[in-house]
Structures are given as C-alpha cells and as structure tokens.
Design brief:
This protein starts with 8 loop residues before the first helix and ends in a 34-residue tail after the last helix. Helix 3 runs antiparallel to helix 6. Helix content is 36%, strand content 16%. By secondary structure, it is of the alpha/beta class. The relative contact order is 0.19. The strands form two sheets. A six-stranded mixed sheet has the order 1-2-4-3-5-8. Strand 3, helix 6 and strand 4 form a beta-alpha-beta unit. It is built from twelve helices and nine strands. The protein has one domain: 3-Layer(aba) Sandwich (Aminopeptidase), CATH 3.40.630. The structure holds zinc ion (ZN). The site of zinc ion has 6 residues, from helix 6.
Length: 381
C-alpha cells in the first residue's frame, strides 16, 4: 500500500498549512470545535490503555473465539460508559476449529456468533448522514494482536472518548466501528456494508486504521475531494512538527481485484522474522482492509497511511505481535487525527465527492496493492 503517488510530505504539509491560514488559522476564526477536540485529547489520553487491555489482558482475538467475544463485550461496555449508543451487530456464526483448523488455544469450539461493535454519536442536524471511523477487533492467534490491530481499536475508542469529552455536536452522525472477521476476508465489514446498504448513499466517508502502531501520517484521495479534505485536515497538519501529515491526490482510489473470496490462512505460528516469507504467507487471498467493501459500495473509504519507528512488517501476523510492540504516544496521536477527521467531515457543507471514486480500469492499480502483486514493501493487513 505504500507505493504510488506519494508526494513529498513537506510540500503537502506546506500546502495544508496554507489552506489552514486561508481557512482562518489557529484561533483566528477557526471552528472552535476543533480547539475543543484538541484540548480534550491533551487533557486525558486513554488510547494506549484501551489497546493494552485488548492485547495484554484479553490477548489473541481469533474470530469465533471466546476471547473475541469477551473483547466485543468489553469494547461495547467501554464505549457505552462514554455515553454513546452502542450495539453489537451480529453477522453470523464462525467456527475457527472448522474454518481455520484452530481448536485448542482460546476456547475455540464453535460455532460462536460474532459481532461488529457499533457506537454512534448522533448528528445534531443531519443524523441520517454518517461518517465512520473503524478498525478490526479480531486478530490472529500467534500473539496478542497488538499492532494488528489493538492499536487501531484503541485509537478508534479514544477518538470516541475525545469527541464526547470535547462536547462538540457534529452535524452528521459519527459511527465508531470495531469490525470482526477481518482476517478471514473482511467478513464483518462486508456484512456491515450489506446490512447498512440503505445508508451507503448517505455515508460521507469511512476511515480505517489498520497499518500497525505508528502514527497516522496521511491518506490518498481523489482530486474531486481536494478542497474538502484540505479543509478537514488543515488542523491535523498543524498539530505538531513531530507528526507530519500528507494528503495525496490521485485520479481514483484503488479497488483491489477480487481478493476477498478466500480467507487468508497464514500458517506461520512460529514465524518471527517479519520477512518476505511471512508476508507472502499472509498475502494469498487477503484484502487490504475493512475500507474495501465500502469502496465497492461507492463510498469514499480510506486506509490511513502510518509512518514511524515501529516495524509493522516484523510484528504483523507473527509471534512478535505482543503488547510491548505498541507505541503508546503514537496511538494517542492517531486517535486525535481520527477525531479531527471524523468531526471535520461531519461538519462539511455536503457529502464528500464521489465522482471518479475508483481509478479507471482499476484492478489493484493505485495506492493499494493487489494481493497478487504484493511485495515485502506492500503489507497486507
Ligand atoms: Zn489488520
């Protein structure tokens, strides 16, 4: 996913800063909600705590396992304690012993009903229009599933906390979704997009975090979205110099080829190298992440780009994906970026542009790599 259309970050940040000044700049006519959101993130920070609980206390969360069921209920209760409306939306039963040959570690006798965790901050003016931020709650069972993807879940939950604590009343509804069955072929997000098909036309954007514990550092969008997204992310680009953020614009987003029909079944329980061999094992039949079903439904959907010192290729789908791999400060930063992204899109005058959403003739071309073209530099999630 790292290839293609990367523009020199400093140029993009400079452009975003210019846009921010044009929009009003810090404290100079900027939406006061943005400053309240930033203040709420600076006052308290719980994203790393959430991620640590999922990875360290609950542990591996294989789809269909008792531990994933425990994680679903824990996340529901935590989000509910923030004052949000939270639902566990079941998408079916899954038996890891039967489907994956996993049968001993986590109480995996099934089948067990699996759920997406869906929390909602209802919109004040257009409650039937939505912005979604999400990450997947399930993991493989080699280790704790810390970078894949307790980090993303912690950031999503903290983004929810930040927005509630800030007291903002966004125009559109913001949904915080923890999907399940991602590792088996985006089962939960595909089911969500199907179950909520009637809402897809009114879903402005979907933002997914699923590239490890490094801080969110950018995303790729279409030219038609440029004005809106520069406005939304101007405050992000100005947060701090340690965390640059780059928007990249392309002729269309990448919609991977039919890559979601077979579950990924890595078999490297002892693979600790994070090498090309590990990546190759996990690549066959898998999709980039949970934004894909929304793109297929015509919704602007993004997988955040993340950059930093953590080596995702080393921990991803390996026995090294343990709780100590988390970078707490990065999780907190990503949570704030998510909160600002969700709020900014929820406040736009209209829905995000959908024209030319997918690149012409696209079957894996573009910023997201198709599985068959995967190389060590292009991670599957
Ligand atoms: Zn993942």
């Amino acid at each position: 996913m790292r290839r293609c259309w990367l523009i020199e970050g400093s140029i993009v940040v400079a452009l975003l800063a210019a846009a921010a000044v044009a929009w009003g700049g810090v404290g100079a006519g900027r939406d006061p909600g943005v400053d309240r959101i930033i203040a709420a993130a600076r006052t308290e920070a719980h994203g790393a705590e959430y991620a640590r609980y999922l990875a360290g206390e609950i542990g591996p969360r294989l789809t269909g396992s008792a531990k994933l069921a425990r994680a679903e209920k824990w996340a529901r209760d935590r989000l509910n304690s923030l004052g949000l409306d939270v639902r566990l939306e079941s998408w079916g039963k899954f038996d890891p012993a039967k489907e994956l040959g996993r049968n001993t570690l986590q109480g995996t006798r099934g089948p067990r009903t699996v759920h997406n965790v869906v929390a909602e901050l209802r919109g004040a003016e257009k409650p039937e229009e939505f912005v979604i931020v999400g990450a997947h709650l399930d993991s493989w069972d080699f280790a704790h599933g810390a970078t894949d993807n307790a980090a993303g879940c912690g950031a999503v939950m903290e983004a929810a906390r930040i927005l509630v604590a800030s007291g903002v009343k966004p125009k559109r509804s913001i949904r915080f979704v923890l999907w399940t069955g991602e590792e088996q072929g985006l089962l939960g997000s595909k089911a969500f997009a199907t179950a909520h098909a009637g809402e897809m036309a009114k879903t402005s954007a979907v933002f997914v975090m699923d590239a490890g514990t490094n801080p969110i550092a950018g995303l790729t969008a279409t030219h038609a979205m440029r004005a809106d997204l520069e406005r939304v992310f101007a405050p992000v680009a100005m947060l701090d110099a340690e965390h640059p953020f780059a928007l990249t614009f392309a002729d269309g987003l990448a919609l991977p080829a039919d890559c979601c029909t077979k579950p990924a079944q890595p078999s490297m329980a002892t693979c600790t190298g994070g090498t090309a061999a590990c990546s190759a094992l996990s690549a066959a039949g898998s999709c980039p992440s949970d934004h894909t079903p929304f793109l297929q439904a015509g919704v602007p959907a993004f997988l955040f780009e993340q950059r930093g010192r953590a080596d995702y290729a080393r921990t991803h789908h390996t026995a090294l994906d343990t709780v100590d791999a988390l970078v707490p400060s990065a999780v907190e930063h990503s949570a704030l970026v998510m909160a600002l992204a969700a709020y900014g899109v929820a406040e736009l005058p209209g829905l995000l542009a959908r024209e030319k959403l997918v690149a012409p003739g696209n079957a894996g071309a573009g910023p997201l790599m198709a599985p068959q073209a995967c190389t060590p530099g292009c991670e599957q999630h």
